[in-house]
Amino acid sequence: MAKVIVDPVTRIEGHLRIEAQVDGGVVTDAWSSGTMFRGMELIVQGRDPREAWIWAQRICGVCTTVHAIASVQAVEDALGIDPPPNARLMRNLISGAQYIQDHVVHFYHLHALDWVDVTGALTADPGKTADLAQAISPWALSSKAYFTEVQARVKALVDSGQLSIFTNGYWGNPSYKLPPEADLMAVAHYTEALSWQRDVIRMHAVLGGKNPHPQTFLVGGMAAPVDPNSPNVINPERIDLMASLVKKMRTFVEQVYVPDVKAVASFYPEWFTYGAGHRNYLAYGGLPNGALNDIANYTFPRGIILNGDLSTVHPVDQAKITEAIARSYYTYPGGDQSTLHPYDGVTAPKYAGPTPPYEELDTANKYSWLKSPRYEGQVMEVGPLARMLVAYGSGVKKVQDLVNTTLQELNAEPAALFSTLGRVAARALETVYLLDWMDTWLAELGKNMNSGDLRTADTSKWDPSTWPAEAQGWGPHEAPRGALGHWVKIKDQKIANYQAVVPSTWNAGPRDEKGQTGPYEASLIGTPVAVPDQPVEILRTIHSFDPCLACAVHVVDATGAEKVRVEVR
Amino acid sequence: MTGVAGGSPDPFGGTGRRYVILGLGNRIQGDEALGALVVERLSTDEAEIRTLPDPGSVDLVDGGTVGLALLPRLESVDGLVVVDLIDGGCPPGTLQDLDGSSLLRRDIVLGVHDLGATEILATLQLMGAMPRRTRIVGIQPKLVGLATELTPEVAATMPELVEAVLTHLRAWQTEDRSGG
Fold this sequence. Notes:
- Chain A is built from 16 helices and 16 strands.
- Chain A is of the alpha+beta class.
- Chain A has a single domain (2-568), classed as Cytochrome-c3 Hydrogenase, chain B, CATH 1.10.645.
- In chain A, helix 4 (85-111) packs parallel to helix 9 and helix 7 runs antiparallel to helix 9.
- Chain B has a single domain, classed as HybD-like (Rossmann fold, 3-Layer(aba) Sandwich), CATH 3.40.50.
- The two termini of chain B are 29 Å apart.
- The relative contact order of chain B is 0.23.
- The chains are: A alpha+beta (569), B alpha/beta (180).
- Chains A and B meet through helix 6 and helix 7 of A and helix 4 and helix 5 of B.
């Protein structure tokens, strides 16, 4: 029997710790812990609600934009403001660019090395790699000479003794199954994606003035003027520039990302059977194509799938969301067994874990800085898989076609979606789904501009004297990592209470007052671990959720252990 | 790329050469603030940068925690000086000045940034976009933990550190000007 501890889990960003019990080569129990406190809620308390987004956006430096959008929507909901179409379109374009860039970065830079052995690339035959690449995609960078050059660069890096960017790869582990040629192809695309992502995210600079953390959000719309006759605003030239960026997104996604996901998946069919967890999925839905609360016209529908039953999509009532703290480092006025809706949420930190440096968390009691969000008391997974399943169950034709075609190609049943690789596949399909929407939104923005609709904000309620004495609202959004909600209570023109319930809290939260495991914890049970001190299998499943604990927990820890620490006892 | 604090790439009118001073640091982590403070000092008072032969070609970058987004400003530049804490097991306040390639082998940088100097350099190497020259200049920290001031030992070494940074740039720019 071995206890495997991985801390931190996230590659490049985040602060998550997993403790797993491994018996006979299989995970039998697991605990997920956020190891840092966030506390953004306390910072915005008492501030002007119109500026909350500026603070909230800083919750994360990777998934920028999402907290700004959730925040302005929460205030708009409270004050009864509906932003004009151009604002909605620009927000959707910013969100779509965020998804597309983030999903590709996740696959190559945060997740691929769980499947790809970098050192395997050294033994690849560049000629055969070219054959493989050309067989699965028309992508131009696929010659023998190119792969020879990439291989030389990898060799130089390995020879320098420094594989630090690939820190938590377990080179040579028997659970790596790709042929060396696929390893080399994936490593080449890893480096290409680095350049690609920095180009396409310029969309945020065009619409938001800068990246990361665009600065044009506004309660009531967007502070980005649209005018066909002005050189320094959103004009036909900028729209052409954005169209070229979307084209660049499409080419890479269709010719590199999606073929690579399918190629990797084809060598790991068993990973369509591991990693499911509770099989409950929640999507708030989002990226509206009509009024803010017109959920029938959301790009991603709102709904809940229970127990993996795709035949019924249950409605979502935000009033049924609660957060538990029984196993979290917080106190509630009503005690540890009580739960609170976010409107009445309380952020009262009280660390109750072991004194650092410690060996193990006290998993029998409190062990995480994350709370445990629940819907009607039930555990919910959020993210691309939840969105695609809810869209599939809701009858979104395009999503159904994408999913069905992929399942056929992989010779898999819909149940295969409830798995580690199901999450990876859903993320790729969602990216494809969004490409067409990007074209649509850009075209609409251009059409509005040409027809003289230049409105980008409704400022009729900008003046606080127009507000009621008390108001409350929620801002539901779908961040790349899943359902994100901000809740705000406004009293006397100031924020009286604020709570953000973020995707990684839904997914990575600890057990609740009833002892129910969180999604990460449940998903690990039953996962095989070939070599306990190289728990690459645990990373595969946890990384499939795209953990980014910066938003779930924030403010920096002491002497940041940047290296993955794996301890086995 | 925009959004990284620091001077504009070419405030004085440059020569086409590109040099970067990259400060890595977290301002609420005691000595961890070092890199950010060096960049702030050089941007606030330009007098020190103006002593260089080619001040217009120097890009001052406060790396913050933006990680991979830094890469475009570093790819294939003529010279890169990374300012970061360096844990070499020396007494606190000791100045350390390392070649970039030695760092790639030694992995001794300490820090809580999301992407440290070693990771950035390794990524540039993999992309085939390593700067022509790289130095890592830093100070042995005394305290990395919640605090908004440098410890006296590290603060006292700051002037020496800034001079070490400028010395590298001066040498590189002189070499490049003479057709190097």
